[in-house]
Amino acid sequence: MLELTDVVAGYGSTVIVQGITLGVATGECAALVGPNGHGKTTLLRAISGLLRVRSGSIRFDGTDITKLKAEKIVELGLIHMPQGDLVFPDMTVEENLVLGAFTRTAAKRSRERIAEVYDIFPRLLERRGQRARTLSGGERRMLAIGRGLMGDARLIMIDEPSLGLAPVIVDEVYHQIRRIVDTGMTVLLVEENINRARSLARDIHLVENGTVVRSGRGSELLDDRAIRETYLGVSE
């Protein structure tokens, strides 16, 4: 569903993503893992049209989206859920969700879609009338993901869903993301923790210095002694 070929992107005169090629199959979950500051978030911004691609190409379900504006990419069903919560604090849970269905096609299905989001995140249904600022960190993360699903999503990109959350809350958030994956939604996940990533993703791409240095199944990567020592701190 998503195909990247030699994608290069960055900020100003600085190149961050240095020729990444990878694909995400329809109905699968893939993950980008690796140290912070090595280009994972920049790559998502390039895919979603928030950052100009300097060279290379990006295709979404056969359509070249390399030069499309972000709002056009959203209309195609490719949804980017950035780091952090980024909810509207003075709006209620339900108002935040409704804002996620801002495209014409999504608005037509907003009532149906909000019921689906509440089914995945029952905690949000319980809090539907509360202002977002009164939610816990985990609940705000769920709300941010739920709002993304409201956009008639066909592929969702989730950037660091565990960022800043206590381990017990991370477990709950990942449980809900697992429910999303199990519906057949195509997912591209960014996660620093390789063990978290492999609990969801079929394919894992290890990103270092703006390039993909290894790709494979989670078990394959963890069989590599160098990767275990570098990213898990396990020495033999």
UniProtKB/TrEMBL annotation:
Domain of life per record: Bacteria
Name of the protein described by the UniProt record: Amino acid/amide ABC transporter ATP-binding protein 2 (HAAT family)
SMART domains associated with the record: AAA
Cited InterPro entries: AAA+_ATPase, ABC_transporter-like_ATP-bd, ABC_transporter-like_CS, BCAA_Transport_ATP-bd_LivF, P-loop_NTPase
Keywords from the UniProt entry: Amino-acid transport, ATP-binding, Nucleotide-binding, Transport
Domain ABC transporter: residue ranges: 2-234
Family to which this protein belongs: Belongs to the ABC transporter superfamily.
Coiled-coil residue windows: none
Biological process annotations from GO: L-amino acid transport
Keyword Aminoacyl-tRNA synthetase carried by entry: no
Transmembrane segments: none
SUPFAM superfamilies: P-loop containing nucleoside triphosphate hydrolases (SSF52540)
GO molecular function: ATP binding; ATP hydrolysis activity; branched-chain amino acid transmembrane transporter activity
Pfam families: ABC_tran
The keyword Nucleotide-binding belongs to this UniProt entry's keyword annotation: yes
